[in-house]
Amino acid sequence: MRRCLWLLVFLCGIGGAQAAVPKTVLVLGDSLSAAHNIPVESGWVHLLDVRLSNMVPKWTAVNASISGETSLSARHRLPALLREYHPAVLVIELGANDGLRGLPLPALRDNLAAMVELARQHKAKVLLLGIELPVNYGPQYRDGLRAIYADLARDRHIALVPFLLDGIALDPALMQDDGLHPVASAEPRVLDNVWKQLQPLLH
Fold it and tell me: For residue 20, what pLDDT is reported?
């Protein structure tokens, strides 16, 4: 009897330890997610991590974003990141640097689709964050870029934020002098845009 009770306590302890391990949201992005030119603790991914840590059960955010990242370089990095962090949710925020360099849109779509498929192979849900380019890139390229995110979300049945900086990008008071990155005080609004689509994936 005593041995059975000891075994029960031991197994319960293991179960409790496993339950206490936070699930992970992995953010794979570029400078828009890497807190460009602002304190790291002000960036939306750090703010997300704080919010997740207060949830029950707890979650954690891992920021694998790199300023200047393209969809191709992120595609090459993703397999190792998935093996290391085993995320339950992968947030993909990429395409801005592809677009600013005028790279072919089919290549961007192929890279994003490959990352979505790889995440699914690792049993991770996917949230895709869309971006917009400045108007001087022309309507054809801008519309094509916008369509990539919408089509992928529809065809692969994944969550989508159509424009990460919605309600922010056109307000000069919320943007840095380069016109591309939000100021620190705007980062909570960026998180709000993400949270609307991310929160359902956490349950």
Answer: 65
Residue 91 pairs in a beta bridge with 27, 127
Amino acid at 120: R
Q: Look at the block and give the residue holding tokens 């570029």.
A: 30
pLDDT digit string, tens, across residues 99-133: 999 999 999 999 999 999 999 999 999 999 999 99
The DSSP call for residue 182 is: B
Mean model confidence pLDDT for the chain: 92
Cα–Cα distance, 194 to 175 (Å, whole number): 18
**pLDDT single digits (tens) 56-69:** 999 999 999 999 99
For the CA atoms of 105, 197, 76, 80, the dihedral, rounded to the nearest 10 degrees, stands at -170
Closest-CA residue to 20 (of 60, 50, 47, 51): 60
- Whether this model's pTM surpasses 0.85: yes
Helices (H), 21-176: 44-53, 71-85, 96-100, 105-121, 139-156
Q: Using CA atoms, how far apart are residues 11 and 3, in angstroms rounded to an integer? A: 12
Q: List active site positions.
A: 31, 178, 181
Which two structure tokens, joined as six digits, stand for 18?
A: 């496993």
Distance between CA 126 and CA 142 in Å, rounded?
Answer: 23
